[in-house]
Amino acid sequence: MVDQGREESGRDLQVLRRHVVDRVDVRMMRVRAVIQAVLQHVEGLAIGAQLMLLDGDHFDIRAFHDTVLGGGAMPLAVLERRVENRIAAKNNPGS
Predict the structure, then answer these.
(1) Which of 17, 82, 87, 95 has the fewest CB atoms within 10 Å of its CB?
(2) Residue 79: other Cβ atoms inside 10 A
(3) For position 1, what pLDDT does the model report?
(4) For the chain, give me the number of helices (H) and strands (E)?
(5) What residues does each domain of the chain span?
(6) How would DSSP label each residue in 1-25?
(7) Low-confidence stretches of the chain (pLDDT beneath 70)
């Protein structure tokens, strides 16, 4: 004869384990998302600092915002290309 209490206890333990694993997975996804957002913010600050160094006293915050924010949300690689294109256009105004 199977001990009904042990069988139910085993199932309860499995359910509890599954619940804990699911909650940990959700929290880890949230942590990854926060870390990714922070890294993107830092990268944006680095791009801004690079432009400020290149432009010196002529740095135009409005032009910077147009370059960085004008295209809406975009991957960092695309943003870097936009900034590189802006730098190239500024360095070669006749081209």
Answers:
(1) 95
(2) 19
(3) 46
(4) 3, 0
(5) 4-91
(6) ---HHHHHHHHHHHHHHHHHHHHHH
(7) 1-8, 94-95
